[in-house]
């Protein structure tokens, strides 16, 4: 299978699709985080405040009563990046059943999915939940960092899913 559009599950076996998307989303979140941290260093001092994953984790922790953990430096960093990896895996699991339906090259599918996730998050549920201001109220350079990170993430997911899907299907058939 060369792209996710050929992986649509006609046999009703969505679990390998969801699993391959989750694993790809998790794996793609690691270089995404690295890119975010790298690009953050190039921001002007006025825009160098915490990246969204840290802000989101702190605010979610406060809403759930875990704010003492999120405020501590090391546990807060661990919680931030664990949450980021988990969110990457959860949203990545949606890729094969959404982006895979778009008839286009893999890189277009990955980019559209990535921009869709960024838009739904930074223009949608995060502002609606009062966790972050909408992206329209954030400095353009910070938005650019997040969009570039999401594009890397989406592209990697698009590349990783076909071999992961094949491997998961093969292993499942052996069970």
What does it look like?
It is a single chain. The protein has 175 residues and is mostly helical. It has one domain. Helices cover 72% and strands 0% of the residues. Helix 1 runs antiparallel to helix 7. The chain is globular. The N terminus is likely disordered.
The mean pLDDT is 89
Q: Please state the CA-atom Rg, rounded to the nearest Å.
A: 17 Å
Beta strand % = under 5%
* Low-confidence sequence ranges: 1-5
Query: Alpha-carbon distance between the termini?
Result: 22 Å
Q: Tally the helices: what do you get?
A: 7
H/E series, N to C?
HHHHHHH
* Biggest sheet overview: none
Q: Helix amount, in percent?
A: over 70%
How many domain units? 1
Coarse structural class: mainly alpha
Identify the overall geometry: globular
Count of distinct strands: 0
Considering the chains and any ligands shown, give keywords for the structure.
mainly alpha; disordered N terminus; 175 residues
Topology:
Elements: H1 14-40, H2 52-63, H3 67-71, H4 73-92, H5 95-98, H6 106-128, H7 140-174
Helix pairs in contact: 1-4, 1-7, 2-4, 6-7
């Amino acid at each position: 299978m060369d792209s996710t559009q050929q992986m649509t599950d006609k046999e009703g076996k969505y679990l390998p699709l969801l699993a391959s998307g989750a694993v790809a989303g998790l794996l793609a979140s690691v270089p995404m985080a690295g890119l975010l941290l790298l690009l953050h260093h190039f921001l002007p001092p006025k825009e160098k405040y915490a990246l969204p994953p840290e802000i989101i984790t702190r605010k979610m922790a406060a809403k759930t009563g875990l704010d003492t953990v999120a405020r501590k430096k090391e546990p807060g960093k661990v919680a931030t990046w664990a949450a980021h990896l988990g969110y990457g895996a959860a949203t990545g699991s949606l890729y094969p059943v959404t982006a895979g339906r778009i008839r286009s090259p893999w890189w277009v599918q990955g980019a559209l999915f990535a921009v869709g996730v960024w838009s739904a998050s930074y223009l949608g549920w995060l502002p609606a939940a009062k966790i972050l201001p909408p992206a329209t109220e954030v400095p353009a350079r910070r938005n650019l960092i997040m969009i570039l990170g999401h594009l890397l993430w989406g592209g990697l997911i698009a590349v990783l899913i076909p071999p992961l899907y094949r491997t998961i299907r093969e292993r499942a058939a052996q069970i």
